[in-house]
TrEMBL record:
Chain spans, region Disordered: 1-73
Domain F-box: 94-134
Listed name of the protein: F-box domain-containing protein
Annotated source species: Linnemannia hyalina
CDD domains: F-box_SF (cd09917)
Residue ranges that the Swiss-Prot or TrEMBL entry lists as coiled coil: none
Amino acid sequence: MVQSIINKMYNSSHNNSSAPSSPLNPPSSSSPSSPPRTPSSSPSLASPPNVKRKDGPSTSLANDDDVLPPPSKAARHLNEADISNQTRGHSVKNLPSEILLMIATFLVRKDVVQCMLACKNWQHALCLYIWTEIGRNQWMNPLFPLVDGKIDDDVSFDHRRRQVRKLEWSENDNLNLSSERMATMLPLMPGLKKLSLTAAVFQAPRTLLSVLRNHRLLTMVTSVDLHLRQFDGEDALPVREVVQGCEDLEHLGINGTWFRDETQQEIKAHPGFWKIQSLSVPRTHLGLLYRCPDLLALALTSNLTNEVETDIRPIAQCLKLERLKFVGRVGFAVDGFAAVLPQMRCLTLLVIDHIQQDRFGQLEGLRDNKNAPGLKGFELGRVATPVQAQELLTEVNQAMVISILRARPDLTNFKLKGYTVDVFRFFSLEEDGQSMPSCPCPQVRELWLEIHGALEVSADIMQRNLELTYKQVSRIKSLQSLTLKCTRLDASNTSGLNFLTNATKLKELRLSNPSGHVWSLSEITNLMEVVPRLQILDLMPLTRQDRGKVNKYFRDRGKGFLCF
């Protein structure tokens, strides 16, 4: 199998030797394992149109003729003798870099690792194209070569570590990596761009922080996430001392108790601004905003157990802010939100993970479209445990949300999670169902809505509610992603999926209906004929057997389709 893949790509590269190189098809001179060639003879291979990778479904559609055989069986039982026999005439040392790139891209990571374990030549040939991103899945892989005790005396792996661009590290027993080991690994990763560190509760982060403070190691890093706890008896450090060596830092995410805000005296003593464009920080530490005038994205997290009112007026310093998120289970406990809104001229996305019903009054300023005039995305939510029932949005708060939507007809993203809405009130329908005004968000592309179904409401009324919801949703011609959750319904049947006949741009569909209606394969296939762009489908309830049939049905037709 490997030989057929190599021969097909090798012959294709020589037949198309005049094709120019591209970022996905680098010239062979970039690979140390292939001899240099002139640009005129450098082959170039196009990427497979429907290559399936481990990290998710393919992103493009292709016909069956364009897809090579599944690679997962190609290197399952390979050893050094197999590879030597199969690649006879095409030494791995002489393979063009484009061929090696295609092998590493086409095969799943497990098979590439098997190839690398065959011999030293395969290790050095493929090390440029694997382990560029190291996360939890790689640390837990028994074949992963960078864990403790395996490579202390093997210098051949040093070359591989130099290719690492993204490193996610967590200090715990499962990952088997100590702080001391981390200090010796970072200097061997000069090309590191993204770094994420998480330490356990009772372990001191001093060793890690001392590594980060060495500016000679992390000058190329553009993204840093630090979730560390403070060791007992140690003083918190200002963030400036830790990331001062990251000259090109664009994203910073911090959490825990290891850091503190800078005082005004420290800011005056060490003036200067950062290039940070994305910041994730606890809402109680907003002093960093004074050093980030070019901030584009801000996430205010909360790891508190009690609701504490926070003054967010320092956000007004960030005049270029485009995305603002309030993350956490504590709630929308902020002060000064109404005062900050007029300053957010560039805001395009507002996300509030958890807002209590008595806090909706703080959203009053959003009714005026002069505040945050460029707002395109609006997401509200309520964090609830699985045992908690869905909470119906009060009439006053539902009127508040509807008025905000009608004041912003250009809104393209609206999500309301955790709160159910009354269909008639949300869509401004009369009780007799005769009045059908325009939807409050006619230009929305992504819609998430949960429909209220009270226990005392009859099945006929709830069936009518659902049908009216379908009818209103079908009027949104620009819809690309739809999520409808029907809670506490007792309807015996539904109107099927025919309501989406006008949603020709729909790509993602999620419907949850615990009424007992089981979506049939014929309904789903009819939907795919009407909505040909659909790529992600999540229907509840749907049995595992039916889900497998749906995935197989569209996989056999070469469509990049995923059914949950």
